[in-house]
Design brief:
Layout lengths: L43 H9 L6 E3 H8 L7 E8 L3 H4 L4 H5 L4 E6 L10 H14 L6 E4 L8 H12 L3 E6 L5 H12 L2 H7 L10 E4 L5 E4 L2 E3 L4 H4 L2 H7 L8 E5 L3 E5 L3 E7 L3 E6 L6 E5 H11 L18 E8 L5 E5 L3 E5 L5 E8 L4 E5 L3
Parallel strand pairs: 1-8, 2-3, 2-5, 3-4, 5-7
Antiparallel strand pairs: 6-7, 9-12, 10-11, 10-13, 11-17, 12-16, 14-17, 15-16, 15-18
Helix pairs in contact: 1-8
Pfam families: MMR_HSR1 (PF01926), YqeH-like_C (PF21516)
InterPro entries: G_CP_dom (IPR030378), GTP-bd (IPR006073), GTP-bd_ribosome_bgen_YqeH (IPR019988), Mito_lipid_metab_GTPase (IPR050896), NOA1/YqeH-like_C (IPR048422), P-loop_NTPase (IPR027417)
GO molecular function: GTP binding
Amino acid sequence: MIEHDETERPVKCTGCGITLQTMHKDQPGYLPEVSFERDPIICQRCFRIKNYNEASSVSVNQDEFLRLLSGVGEKNALVIHIVDIFDFEGSLISGLQRFVGNNPVILAVNKTDLLPKVTNWNKLRNWFQQRCKEQGLRTAEIVLCSAKRNQGFDHLLEAVTELRGQRDVYVVGATNVGKSTLINRLISDYSDLEQELTTSRYPGTTLDTVRIPLDDGHYIIDTPGIVYPWRYSELVERQDLDAVMPSNPLKPAVYQLNEGQTLFFGGLGRFDFVQGVHQSFTCFISGTLKIHRTKLERADELYQNHRGVMLSPPGSEQLDKLPTWQRHEFRIAKNSQTDLFMSGLGWIKVNGSEGAVVAVHVPRGVKVLTRPSLI
């Protein structure tokens, strides 16, 4: 990060108050070196809001985000928590309720376009409501939406209109969940930013939240995206991100497996059917990530001989940058309708009614858990 002499030029963004820096585009306070010639001097995120009515994404770690969020419960606020339907447990903000207090929360479940068209949406909404209840999060409304397809946003705007009243709107979420797209839609519907921001400096806060003025004197508060280290999207290199995060509707891959068979998901993960009767497993994984089947007894040898080549991504040059794999074993009860969830990689639905013992191998630190089946 370049240090700036305060006697020569400002070191704070006049829009949001963040310390300016020129080294890291994806972090708060970034602006190109040449932009110090602007008047007023504002960071790139504030510049895009002011000139293009668009918010861009920046990120902070969990501790920093929770510090920024610590005072929301004492304010009159509406909180929109946006999560990724493909990585729900990985993108849900744990403990959010204790920070928002009695303020209403809208849960915006994004990327619904990834699910099969035959999905029962009412059942899905109830599923999310139950998961939030288990996490202690009270939701005033759950909205299923797709930023990519511009679906469900009318419902979201209706919920915001109904619940906002005289409140500011805080938008919170992890990285790569579509938060900026949602904020941009709110901007276009609720704020005449072009007029407001070209006639006066818009009020800012300290650090890296941005207060976007609304027509009624209240604000949309754009918070940075949280970096959760247990998600694949934070582990893989950018060139591998497209293979991990699906951009097209998921095509469930059904495998009829015998006890003692293994599935590899590229070189990023592995599923072992350790014990049980012949049964089917449905993989909800990005279609660009190839699945390889082998015998469990040959799985270790196959991985050692073919990782980074046949079993890729990651490529061989990226392997050493990932943590070593960790094995997680689960006993699936009979008639349980269970998913094996791997944060950011997808999930495996256990279809058999007789139960099973299974294991998942993923890089150490990746969140893995069982849950009631989403679909």
